[in-house]
Design brief:
By secondary structure, the protein is of the alpha/beta class. It has 9 helices and 7 strands. It folds into 2 domains: 119 residues, P-loop containing nucleotide triphosphate hydrolases (Rossmann fold), CATH 3.40.50; 59 residues, no CATH class. A hairpin with a 2-residue loop joins β3 and β4. The chain starts with 6 loop residues before the first strand and ends with a helix.
Amino acid sequence: MAANRPYIVGLTGSIGMGKSTVAQMFVDEGVPLFDADAAVHQLQGPGGALVDDIEALFPGTTTSSGVDRQKLGAAVLGDPVALRRLEKLIHPAVAAMRQEFLEQNQDQPLILFDIPLLFEKGGAGGVDHVIVVSAGDDHQRARVLSRPGMSEQRFEQIKSLQMPDAEKRQKANSVIDTSLPHAETRRQVQKLVEKLKASLA
């Protein structure tokens, strides 16, 4: 780790594992958060930097309020070539925003990068410590299928693009279990933040 930058923790986990909830718990503990999904929303939202480029690549997928995520999802899901074209547009833009965030938080001991496809896209080498958020299969399925517009087929399709949870857990430096009550998950986060800060002192 370079001495002139914060210790970077990468937070990841498959769909429905409770990653956003855990990310917020880190924020509550005073750890600055860069949320890759939120960055994508900003880039694709009203007046977003990538809206025109996405419309050019995938005509009919944007409106005056930015990218229609359902239409864009339908245009790329199950089409690896289309997905790669979209990623070539999005990844560099998100990386630039992440670099800016890093520069703004250079004096922090610890920062958190929330990156959904950290392992799948080979990003684990860019962080110092990887946390995987995990829950049992039943918890995951129930959470995901309760989302609006979600079907079994779509859930299975998304899961097929993600590394299996068991594999992620093996690759992790730490695992946060969200099958437990909320307060217990929060205690896991608090203990981990204390441990990481103590190791840097």
